[in-house]
Amino acid sequence: MSKVTKRKHVMNEALWDDYELPKENQSVVKVLKSKGNNLHEVCTSTGEEYLVSMPTKFRKNIWVKRGDYILVEPIAEGDKVKAEIVKIMNKDSIKYYKENNVWPKQFEDDKEDIKNDDDELFVNTNRKVITYDSESSDSDSESGIDT
């Protein structure tokens, strides 16, 4: 299988939601930070923090950033790395988990849930944002200055 074909299949699998509920050994966790070498530090709903690994099929095809939610499955031989990523959650799968009362209650209060669609847009921080104060123009006219 070529790289392009593999990438296409992995992306389709990640983007296409089969809406499958997690099995008993799987759990939803939040990504805290990336540690390098396809390792990510995560936090469970109980507050436990540990490392998870990204399987080779996701590497160089799917990216996980801080604040994302992922579905993990524990691995037996893990001492420091205790789980492996099974699925990267998106808005639709999170909504489906909430509807089926599978979503952890501790993650419901996160400000990620309040996010609007405009927050997803890229903001260019290289340009200075100019804001106009409409009250300053009103105060000039009220002060009695005739032009």
Automatic annotation (TrEMBL):
The keyword Protein biosynthesis applies. GO terms for cellular component: nucleus. SUPFAM superfamilies: Nucleic acid-binding proteins (SSF50249). One of its GO terms (molecular function) is translation initiation factor activity. The keyword Acyltransferase does not apply. Residues 17-90 form the S1-like domain. PROSITE patterns: S1_IF1_TYPE. Keywords: Initiation factor, Protein biosynthesis, RNA-binding. Belongs to the EIF1AD family. This is Probable RNA-binding protein EIF1AD. It comes from Operophtera brumata.
